Amino acid sequence: MFGRTDVATDIQIYSIPGHNAEIATDLYTLLMNEPYRLQDKHIIELFVKRDFAERRAFTALYVVAFALGIPAILVASGFGLSDRRKR
Predict the structure, then answer these.
(1) How many domains does the chain have?
(2) What is the pTM of this model?
(3) What Cα–Cα distance (Å) separates residue 18 from each residue in 25, 44, 55, 76?
């Protein structure tokens, strides 16, 4: 990674359900001085669900802003008024 040799960026471990705590303890003792991040399937699933929820919220926000912005611009520009009323 980034020109460094002998560096693992990702490790995927399959385990029997219920043994995650034991594996996490073993990895902690093995990699005590190394930076690492430990995630299980449940944590990753929560991250994915949260990301999709945030995307839906931002999409709804942009749709509402766009729907309200166009009429506001048309009203401010005087679109649809006769020439006498514009002055």
Answers:
(1) 1
(2) 0.42
(3) 13, 17, 32, 63
